[in-house]
């Protein structure tokens, strides 16, 4: 089975580990840069990206993570998507610059702070249920970034190469398609190395 790390500094990591287990992968909680070694892929969960950054700025963790995402499939959800981006607004903060998207943090306003919405998706099957919690908005996608689902006009699920990002929390809806898509991406990346 695939061994998938779940960044476990803060936030919604437990629920991701459960979904991975349901899908037959082996989740490994990642709390140190050393624990990135030997993983087939990584999920960076939702939570508070500023808090995660604080932990990442110790012991070379940020640099180790940047090296990992440049090489191995990585899926960022919400705060994790903010970490993957090339630029972050409201407020500006450091990011990995791995996925060519611009994001605005907490962009959906007070009344829409949290919402459960449904959207058509280019993934097979029924519309996708999406749980948004103080979600960022993807305000720009670079060339080569594919949009797989939208909220109104805003991309909310995007993919580029072996990187996947969602501004919602797929681990909190019963729909496992997004995690399955990520595991397929991990398998594909291993085939192309052989
Ligand atoms: N508002 C959070 C941030 O800016 C993200 C929210 C989430 O991950 N659910 O990091």
From TrEMBL:
Quaternary structure and interacting proteins, as annotated: In the presence of PdxS, forms a dodecamer of heterodimers. Only shows activity in the heterodimer.
Name of the molecule in the record: Pyridoxal 5'-phosphate synthase subunit PdxT
Active site: 78, 169, 171
Keywords, in A-Z order: Glutamine amidotransferase, Hydrolase, Lyase, Pyridoxal phosphate
Gene label: pdxT
Family matches, as InterPro entries: Class_I_gatase-like, PdxT/SNO
Example of a GO cellular component annotation carried by this entry: cytosol
Binding of L-glutamine, residues: 47-49, 105, 133-134
SUPFAM superfamilies registered for this protein in UniProt: Class I glutamine amidotransferase-like (SSF52317)
Pathway membership, UniProt: Cofactor biosynthesis; pyridoxal 5'-phosphate biosynthesis
Biological process per Gene Ontology, one example term: L-glutamine catabolic process
Record field: catalytic activity: aldehydo-D-ribose 5-phosphate + D-glyceraldehyde 3-phosphate + L-glutamine = pyridoxal 5'-phosphate + L-glutamate + phosphate + 3 H2O + H(+); L-glutamine + H2O = L-glutamate + NH4(+)
Native source species: Granulicella aggregans
């Amino acid at each position: 089975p695939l061994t998938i790390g779940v960044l476990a500094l803060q936030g919604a990591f437990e629920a991701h580990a459960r979904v991975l287990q349901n899908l037959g992968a082996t989740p490994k909680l990642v709390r140190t840069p050393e624990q990135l070694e030997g993983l087939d892929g990584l999920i960076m969960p939702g939570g508070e990206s500023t808090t995660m950054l604080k932990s990442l700025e110790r012991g070379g963790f940020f640099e180790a993570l940047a090296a990992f995402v440049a090489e191995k499939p990585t899926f960022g959800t919400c705060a994790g998507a903010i970490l993957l981006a090339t630029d972050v607004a409201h407020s500006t903060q450091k990011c990995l610059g791995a996925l060519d998207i611009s994001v605005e943090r907490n962009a959906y306003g007070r009344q829409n702070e949290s919402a459960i919405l449904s959207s058509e998706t280019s993934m097979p099957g029924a519309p996708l249920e999406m749980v948004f919690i103080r979600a960022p908005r993807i305000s720009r996608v670079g060339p080569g970034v594919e949009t797989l689902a939208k909220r109104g006009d805003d991309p909310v699920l995007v993919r580029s190469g072996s990187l996947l990002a969602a501004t919602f929390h797929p681990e909190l809806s019963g729909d496992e398609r997004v995690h399955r898509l990520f595991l397929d991406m991990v398998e594909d990346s291993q085939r192309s190395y052989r």
